Amino acid sequence: MKGMVFTEFLEMVEAKFSADMVDDIIDDANPASGGAYTSVGTYSHEELVDMVVALSNRTQIPVPVLVRTFGEHVFGVFARSFQQFFEGVPDALTFLSGIEDIIHAQVIKLYPDAQLPKFDCLREGNQLTMIYHSDRHLADLAEGLIMGCGQHFGDNLTIQRDEVNELSTRFIVTKV
Amino acid sequence: MEAQQQTDALTLLEQRWQKRLDRERAARKEAERLLEEKSLALYERNVELRELASNLEKLVDQRTNELAVALKKAQAATLAKSEFLATMSHEIRTPLNGVLGMAQLLFDTELSEQQREYVSNLKNTSNTLLAIINDVLDFSKIEAGKLELESISYDLYQLVKEVCAIFKLQAQQKGLSLQVEFNELVPRWIVGDPTRLRQILMNLLSNAMKFTESGTVGLALMPSVESDVLTVCVWDTGVGMDEKARSKLFQAFSQADASTTCQYGGTGLGLAICDRLTTLMGGRIWVESEQHKGSRFYFTFAAPRGKESSQEIRVETIKSLAELKVLLVEDNAINRLVATKLLQKLNINAAIAVDGLEAVAMTEKAAYDLILMDMQMPNMDGLTATQHIRAMNLSKRPKIIALTANAMNEDQERCLAAGMDDFISKPIHFDQLKQTLARFYP
Ligand code: HEM
User: Fold this and answer.
1) What is the pLDDT of residue B319?
2) Count of domains in chain B?
3) Do residues B339 and B284 both lie within one domain?
4) Domain residues for B125?
C-alpha cells in the first residue's frame, strides 16, 4: 500500500489523539518496515491493519469505526491534493460514479504499483449502486471515503451496505 | 524520591523524543534512498532508451542501404529488360518491313484469285505484327525513360478532325455513329506533342470501335478546372466492363480478360501506353464503365495555349520547289496533262497516280511531301484515299491538297475532315497553285 496512506493515517492519529499515541501504536504493532513511513514508499497493507487494531485496543473504539473515520478524513486530504479530479464535477454521486473509470484510472498512472480495488457502479437518478471488490477487506475504508465525498460536496448521502461475499460488498448510496 | 521520579519521567520523555527523532530520520533516509533508487532507475531507462534509439537508427540505416541496393538492382533489371525489348523489336521490325514491302510488290503483280487472297492475308497479318511490335517498342521506350515529347504549337481542331476522319469510314462500315464534341472554351492552337496526342486518341477510338457492336462512339474535348489542362472523353455504347476488369486495365500486358485477346486481338499494351503517355503529358487517364452499357475513357493533358501559325506549324526548309516529291492523283487525262504542265512551270516533276487506290499504293512505297488529290475518281475517291493515307504510319506526314470542282463550304469541310490540308478549285489556275504552294513552302 502506498506510503501516503500510512503518513496520512498517522497524521490523523496525531491530530485526533496525540503524538504519543502515534508512538504507542507503532510500538504495539511493531511493523516489519520499522514504522518510519514516507509518502513515496510502499508498505504492506497489513502494517496499517495492525496499527488500526492497536489504536482500537488503546482507545476502545471499534476497528470499523476507526477505519471509516480515516476514510472520511483521507477524502478531505485527497480533495486538497488532487484538485484536478474535481474540476467540472457537480456532485458526489457523479464523482463516485467515476471512481473506477476516471479517478482510480488516473491514480494508477501516478502510482503504477498502487493496489486499487475494483468498483462496479450503476447510477439510477439519485441512487448509485457500487459493488466493491478487493481482497484487502477495506470496505470500511470505502464507506468512510464515500461519506467524506458527500461531506466534500455538501450532499446528504445515505449509505446502505451489505456483504455480497467474502471479497465483495455492495453499497447503495442515495442522495436525499 | 520526588527528584528521582522527576528524573525518571524526564528520561522517559527523552527516550520518547529520541525514538521519534530516530523514526523521522529513518523516514527521511528511506525517502532519500527511494529517491536515489528512482533516479537510478530513471537514468538506466534513459541509457536503455538512448541505446535503443541508436540501435534503431543503425537498423534503419542498414535497411535503407539494403533497400537502396535492391532498388538499384531492380532498376537496372528493368532498364536491361526495356533495352532488350527495344533492340529485339527493332531487329524484328526491319525484316518485317521487307516482308511487307515484298508482299505489296507481289500484290501488284498478276495473280490468280487465290494467290491474291493469300498475299492479302500475308499483308494483313504482317501489318498486325508490325502494329504489335510498334506498341512494344513504344512501351519499352517509355519504360526506359527514353521517350521525349515534342513541344510545338499545333492546331488541335485539325488533329482531331484528321483522327476522326480515319474512324468515320470504319464507323460507317460497322453501322455506328461517330460523334465529336468540341467545347467552345477549348483553344484551337495548343503547345504539346501532336504525334503522341494522336496516338492516344487513335488507341482509345480504335478500342471503342472494337468493343462496340451498335450505337455510338463519341469524342468530346473540354477544358479542365485547372488552367492550361484539357480533358478528353472517348465514350461508347459497347460491351463495357466490370470493376475487376477496370482495375487492371492500364497495366501492361493485361486485357479485360484473357478471352478478350482471343476475341478482339491486340497486345494489351495500348492502354498501358496511353497511361504512360498521359503521365508524360502532365495528365492522367481513367475510365468509367458499366458492363453491357458502355465505357467512358477520360484523360487530361497539359495544353498551354499555342501561337497561331498560318495553316502549318512546321516550316519546311527547302531551297527550291524542285526538291519536293509530289504525287498528282487525277483520273482525267486532260486534267492530268494540265496539272503536270503547270507543276513543271514551278520546276516540279510530279509522280502520277490515276485513282485513289493507286495513290494509296504509291504512298506506301515512297515518301511524298505533297499530294494533289482529285476528289471524284473511279475505284477509290480522293476522300477515301486521304483517309487511308492518314491512317498509315508514315515517317513523314505528306501534305494533301484537294483538287475540287465545286468550292462549296461543305465540300471544303469534308476535305479537312478527311485529313486534307487545303484545297484548290478546278480548273486549276497557275496563280492559285503558286499561292497555295507558297503558303506551305515559303
Ligand atoms: C480523489 C479521490 C481518490 C484518490 C486520489 C484515490 C486514491 C487511492 C490510492 C492512492 C489508493 C491506494 C492504493 C495503494 O496504496 O496501493 C486508494 C485505495 C483505495 N481507494 Fe481510492 N482514491 C480516491 C477516491 C476513492 C473513493 C471515493 C473510494 C470509495 C468509493 C475509494 C476507495 C478506495 C479503497 C477501498 C482503497 C483501498 C484499496 C483496496 O480496497 O483494495 N477511493 N485510492
Assistant:
1) 53
2) 3
3) no
4) 89-143
